[in-house]
Amino acid sequence: MTPKVRPKKSLGQHFLTDLTVAERIAATVDGWLGEPLLEVGPGMGVLTRPLLDRGHDLTVVEIDSESIDYLKANFTELEGRIIADDFLKIDLTALYGDRKFCVIGNYPYNISSQIFFKLLDYKDSVVGCAGMLQKEVAERIAAAPGGKVRGILSVLLQAWFDVEYLFTVDENVFNPPPKVKSGVVRLTRNSVTDLGCDWSTFRTVVKTSFGQRRKMLRRSLAGMVGSTVVADDPLFTRRPEQLSVADFVRLTNIIVESRQSQR
Question: Cβ-count burial of 112 within 10 angstroms (0-12 exposed, 13-18 middle, 19+ buried)?
Answer without folding.
Answer: buried
